Amino acid sequence: MVLSFRMLKVKATVNSKKMSRKKLFTTSRLIIDQLNDFFEDNETQIIKDIKMLFNPEVLEFLPSDWKNIKTEDQVENWLKRQLKESDLCFVELKGEKKIIGLLFLYYSKDNSDTLNIGYLLNKQYWGKGYASELWQVLKEIINNQLVY
């Protein structure tokens, strides 16, 4: 089984000094888009939003080095590493300009046919069905992309 997630190759286009936004996908309440294309233009706000994700409950089962991230400089360095290693997407509430979570998509180093998926969601948004909504749409997209 081979999974082709070609939609992740969407790029923003330059439109009179501003990047035009091309969403990867949406759900009824969320916008999911690649962070790579918008990081430089919105770096300060993105770092502040992502710093809110780094709390002990959100990071409980994640790598120990993630648990030591406390400052905006540490978030920025972590974020730049993640952008090099994976397709990193932000999860945003429709109608708001605030990142409430991150979606990580990367192929396994051992097996290029294996897509690994992970996410972080700000604790403030837990228990509201956002993660379930995100996973449902991802599952539909992946099932439509499967090649046997």
Automatic annotation (TrEMBL):
Record-linked Pfam families: Acetyltransf_3
GO molecular function, one term: acyltransferase activity, transferring groups other than amino-acyl groups
CDD domains with a match to the protein in the record: NAT_SF
Organism, as annotated: Zooshikella ganghwensis
Top-level taxon: Bacteria
Record key words, sorted: Transferase
Lineage: Bacteria, Pseudomonadati, Pseudomonadota, Gammaproteobacteria, Oceanospirillales
Protein's name according to its UniProt entry: N-acetyltransferase
InterPro entries: Acyl_CoA_acyltransferase (IPR016181), GNAT_dom (IPR000182), N-acetyltransferase (IPR051531)
N-acetyltransferase domain ranges (all copies): 53-144
